[in-house]
Amino acid sequence: MKALVEQVEGILKFRGKRLTKQRRLIIETLKNLQGHFDVQDLHRRVEEADHRISLSTVYRTVNLLKELGFLRALDIGEGYTLYEVVPEFEHHHLVCIRCGRIVEFHCEHCEAIHRRLAENYGFEIVSSQVVLQGYCPKCREELNTEAL
Amino acid sequence: MKALVEQVEGILKFRGKRLTKQRRLIIETLKNLQGHFDVQDLHRRVEEADHRISLSTVYRTVNLLKELGFLRALDIGEGYTLYEVVPEFEHHHLVCIRCGRIVEFHCEHCEAIHRRLAENYGFEIVSSQVVLQGYCPKCREELNTEAL
DNA sequence: TTATATGCAAACAATTTGCATCCTG
DNA sequence: CAGGATGCAAATTGTTTGCATATAA
């Protein structure tokens, strides 16, 4: 499997776009940044390597990578957007509505069901997201203790 | 089944909150407003009945109703939040990434799977969301015709 | 060389908040 | 009456954009 940077480079060129040093740096950072992040997180990390990279460039690059299909928005946020590198294997999220903890899970059953469902409606599915919202074990315990 | 207003009224009182005429109006409007809406939509509708109700009051009330569990955020949006009245029976969404069309579907299989999954992780699920993103039948056809 | 990218600051849009006033309980 | 709720306008915040300048191809 080719490095992310090279994959992106190919597609960029194909579209008449350029691989600038800022974009290269952002992509490299992305590789080491696993899990979920928002644009400001990413900007902070990128700044560690080169503090002259502007926030708008990071925004622009994230949007570009989203269009190119390398990143996707999670839509779990509270007023801001979380992103993740599009994973090789689909996975979903358990979100604690009290402490915000996010647990990822994989579910083959879900995939199969989604595919069948989409077919019924004539949709061609590009990606699927399952978000289960509730209380994580820790918060459940704390809620019991506090007896709110 | 009691009217929504009465349900909310009970809980409000219980929490030392008040049922003002603005809140009552918003809740009544909500009843006749099915499907998905954002806060500005709701405000527009509420204004039809009383144009002196401020946008901030609508925002505050929506947040309140969300906390109380009568509304929930859909997190499908593009820069703004969509809400829906928490439905008696869970349902999910097919979203067309080209034209934005949203189709609701119900899926008992999904429910069962989610419950089992959550159990495995010790989560107590309050609500679940499935968002399948792709191309709706109409857009699929148009894309084929245009031969982009 | 030349169109694409960047950095900066200003613009935006959705949402929140401070405060004087109003009104429900 | 007293404390919660409202309306208004100002403030915040995440994100986008215009423009002069820098740079990849």
- Low-confidence segments of chain A, ≥5 residues, pLDDT <50? none
| Helicity level of chain A | 40-55%
Q: How do the SSEs of chain A run, as a string of H and E?
A: HHHHEEEEHEH
Would you tell me the structural class of the helices and strands of chain A?
alpha+beta
Quote the beta fraction of chain A. Answer: 15-25%
Number of domains of chain A: 2
Chain oligomer state? homodimer
Please state how the strands of the largest beta sheet of chain A are arranged side by side: 4-3-5
Largest sheet of chain A: 3 strands, mixed
Instruction: Write the CATH homologous superfamily of the largest domain in chain A.
Output: Winged helix-like DNA-binding domain superfamily/Winged helix DNA-binding domain
**Chain pair forming the biggest interface:** A-B, 33 and 33 residues
Helical stretch tally of chain A: 6
Number of strands of chain A: 5
Q: Identify the overall geometry of chain A.
A: flat
CATH class of the largest domain in chain A: Mainly Alpha
Question: First CA to last CA of chain A: what distance?
Answer: 52 Å
CATH-scheme architecture of the largest domain in chain A: Orthogonal Bundle
At the fold tier of CATH, the topology name of the largest domain in chain A is Arc Repressor Mutant, subunit A
Could you write a compact summary of the structure shown?
Chain A has 148 residues and is α+β, with helices and mostly antiparallel strands.
